[in-house]
Design goal:
single chain, about 325 residues, 12-stranded antiparallel β-sheet, 4 helices, elongated, PorA, DUF3068 domain-containing protein, transmembrane helix
Length: about 325
């Protein structure tokens, strides 16, 4: 029978193979983390809750809705306009898709009121389900411009509206404007930095669209009044609301978040070549919004960045150190010749 002292392995004998196993494990982590873990983390977050506010770059005249009940149309004196938007992730959602609900309001910068003196000029509620990896719309969506009416169902929606999937902003997307329901190309126009975050600048030009001609259009997008009310010659005239504009977006590529934006909107009622302007403004995100969104981008990008860069480096250094220690211990354990 063999002696117990010779059949048992000492700690010094066990340490080298254990360290080699640890080195192999760390090498596997170094390979798997950027290839498997990082892509899993590079998805649209289910915790998305973004608030953006921007003011018009100058005071703007707007259509006086109270004049609808008066003999002639009128405009309100110039005031700053404020565009506010909140985007939140809601259900349904899973590892493949996320549903984004966005409320957008354009209002005159003045105290709240009711009826025709309500400073709210434009309000919409948009709900869209998107692929968490590509950011592309998934299935039908709906947009509501009047709380008293059901949302209009949008089929075949094509394009990004509120955010991009991480790492995809430079891949040639289209942009979808929920008000005009237009899908247009997003054109890269340069690179920049916003609050320390490297961004790509993209621009979408929205062509003129007759809002009254859209399916399930808001009844307020069509006015029928005597010509004298518009200040135009003729008898009864029907004028449709038209809108066009542009979006310039500063997109954080790592997180996919839009951290700054300049939005131009022109909206007027038209009958042939004659037009009555409702609003014509250019909005730009304010400094507080840019700071908040840049911080959100930094937070959302960090897990994928750690998994894609830091974890592999630490794992490689750990594997090399484990092998070095294993070799050193092995040599120390070898009997002298």
């Amino acid at each position: 029978m063999s002696d117990d002292s010779t059949s048992r392995w000492s700690t010094r004998q066990l340490l080298p193979p254990t360290l080699v196993f640890l080195a192999a494990l760390l090498a596997t982590v170094a390979l798997a983390s950027p290839m498997i873990l990082a892509p899993q983390l590079s998805r649209i977050s289910l915790d998305t809750n973004l608030v953006a506010t921007g003011a018009s770059t100058q005071p703007v005249e707007t259509f006086d809705r109270c004049s609808l009940d008066r003999p002639t149309a009128a405009m309100l004196p110039p005031r700053r306009l404020v565009r506010s938007q909140r985007v939140v992730a809601v259900r349904p959602a899973d590892r493949r898709v996320a549903t984004l609900q966005a409320g957008t309001i354009i209002r005159r910068d003045e105290p709240s009121s009711t009826g025709c003196t309500d400073p709210t000029l434009v309000a919409s509620l948009d709900r869209v389900t998107v692929d968490r990896v590509t950011g592309a719309p998934h299935g039908d969506s709906g947009v509501q411009t009047d709380s008293t009416r059901p949302a209009a169902v949008l089929t075949g929606r094509d394009g990004i509206t509120y955010l991009f999937a991480p790492g995809t902003a430079s891949r040639g997307h289209r942009f979808f404007d929920p008000v005009t329901r237009r899908s247009v190309p997003l054109k890269p126009i340069g690179r920049d930095t916003v609050n320390g975050r490297p961004v790509i600048r993209l621009r979408a030009d929205i062509p003129d669209t007759n809002l009254a001609a859209l399916p399930d259009a808001d009844p307020r997008d069509r006015l029928t009044k005597p010509g004298v009310w518009f200040g135009w010659p003729g008898g009864e005239i029907t004028a449709d609301a038209h809108q066009h504009g542009s979006y310039t977006l500063w997109v954080d590529e790592q997180s996919g978040l839009i951290v700054d934006a300049e939005i131009a909107v022109r909206r007027d009622y038209r009958a042939g070549e004659r037009r009555l302007t409702e609003l014509d403004a250019v909005f730009r995100y304010d400094a507080k919004t840019r700071k908040s969104l840049a911080a959100a981008a930094r937070t959302q990008a960090r897990p994928a960045w750690l998994a894609g860069r830091i974890v592999p480096l630490v794992a490689v250094f750990g594997a090399v150190a484990a092998i070095a220690v294993a070799v050193w211990v092995g040599r120390r354990s070898s009997p002298a010749p």
